[in-house]
Write a structure and sequence with these properties.
single chain
Length: 417
């Protein structure tokens, strides 16, 4: 038994409720168990319970053992002064000033066995062998909830950007977009580059692609070598001039090339990002107004300048290979930059249609293929769009990996009596 399972049992009243009595022998009738509180303070708020002949309204605290009340020092915490009932699995105290309800012996053995089975599972997900018992509608509705949870978590990250740049949506989108271009390995470095070059500065040089490349590559620390190539030397001269003019400080994060496909080299990604900046003014405002994902997709179909037709870095031997922003990367930008930003904007301005549009665009985008989505596909989960893959990634990372089965709609459906 643990506290999380006990909270789950209390929330749904999965115990024998006949002839309930406190440890002092007073009759207990539960009118409403209250609302599960995930923040600081008692576990359940707004509960209504009749104890003896008196009806009480207040909070309920849950513990495995009654003595945990003392261990957690609730007696001296003002947050717990309105507790009307202390619900425990085992009463190990002789006396308590607050009514205590013991649930030991009232919980179905089958419930405890199913919970133990899930906790001890070593499968890809704990319920892998039981998932066939869950209805499609339960899975679909839970995936929708997971997707909203994921977008709300990303909204919280965007709100941190907004707090740092005086509520500037275009600037925040620039930071998030740059982080996306860095992919997983160079995400922090690319975000730092974006934050080191204000959007207003980039706008001044919008029509000079060479200067945009120089700013991005220079701030990344990639223009410090003794170059033989004339184009690399030109970028270096441009950056040195701009660095002095704007008093720029290169980022302290390293950028990595090791174990990366050449198409993901930071030099290539920064060149593509420069091309996107040149071709897309006020990009986020245009995205908010865009009627469909197809419009936005066309804006992202950019190709860096001719030097990058023959190079992956500033020092490699020439080799012809066009490097447009590919379909996979465009899909990635939609999923990790455009949709979260659009959803956050809709949330901030209370515009439900924008939030709905963001989720619709995920349905129109290709599903992600990675170890998580492949694992779910193997056991029968649908993964046809980014709507599916994002919800499955959230399920695995936020629930399954932490064995939060009682907080999961699928797990709770399997555990309940």
């Amino acid at each position: 038994m643990n506290e999380q399972l006990l909270q789950f049992i209390w929330q749904f009243q999965y115990f024998n409720r006949s002839d309930l009595q406190t440890t002092q022998g007073e009759e207990v009738y539960i009118i409403t168990p209250g609302t599960w509180n995930k923040n600081q303070g008692p576990d359940f708020t707004n509960a209504r319970i009749r104890i003896g002949n008196t009806e009480w309204a207040g909070t309920v605290e849950i513990h495995v053992k009654a003595s945990d009340w003392q261990k957690h020092q609730h007696a001296v915490d003002c947050n717990y002064k309105n507790v009307i009932l202390h619900v425990v699995y085992e009463n190990d105290l002789q006396f308590s000033s607050i009514p205590v309800l013991e649930l030991k012996g009232r919980i179905a053995i089958s419930l405890l066995q199913r919970y133990t089975q899930l906790m001890e599972s070593s499968h890809f997900i704990a319920c892998e062998n039981l998932i066939d018992n869950i209805s499609d509608i339960t899975i679909t509705s839970w995936k929708e909830r997971l997707l909203i949870e994921r977008l709300m978590r990303k909204t919280a990250q965007i709100q941190q950007y907004m707090a740092a740049n005086q509520q500037h949506w275009e600037e925040s989108f620039w930071w998030l977009l740059a982080r996306n271009f860095g992919t997983k390995i160079n995400a922090d470095a690319f975000e730092a580059i974006a934050q080191s070059i204000p959007l207003i500065l980039l706008a001044k040089h919008k029509h000079q692609l060479i200067q945009l490349e120089a700013l991005l590559l220079g701030q990344a620390g990639l223009l410090e070598a003794d170059f033989e190539d004339k184009y690399a030397q030109l970028l270096q001269r441009e950056y040195r001039f701009l660095k002095i003019k704007y008093q720029l400080q290169p980022i302290v994060y390293p950028v990595y090339f090791l174990r990366m496909r050449p198409s993901n080299f930071p030099t290539v990604r920064l060149a593509q990002l420069a091309a996107l900046i040149q071709q897309s003014a006020h990009l986020f405002s245009k995205i908010v107004a865009a009627p469909s994902w197809a419009y936005v997709k066309k804006w992202l179909e950019v190709t860096p300048n001719d030097f990058w037709l023959y190079h992956y870095t500033l020092t490699d031997e020439p080799y012809y290979k066009p490097k447009p922003l590919g379909a996979e990367m465009i899909n990635n930008i939609l999923i990790n930059s455009i949709v979260p930003m659009l959803f956050a904007y809709g949330q901030a301005h209370q515009q439900e249609p924008l939030k709905y549009k963001a989720m619709q665009w995920l349905e129109a985008a290709k599903a992600e293929k990675n170890s998580i989505t492949k694992g779910f596909e193997k056991i029968g989960f649908i993964n046809k769009s980014a709507w599916d893959s994002q919800s499955l990634i959230e399920l695995k990372n936020q629930y399954c990996n932490h064995k939060r089965c009682v907080a999961c709609a699928i797990g709770s459906a399997l555990i309940k009596p």
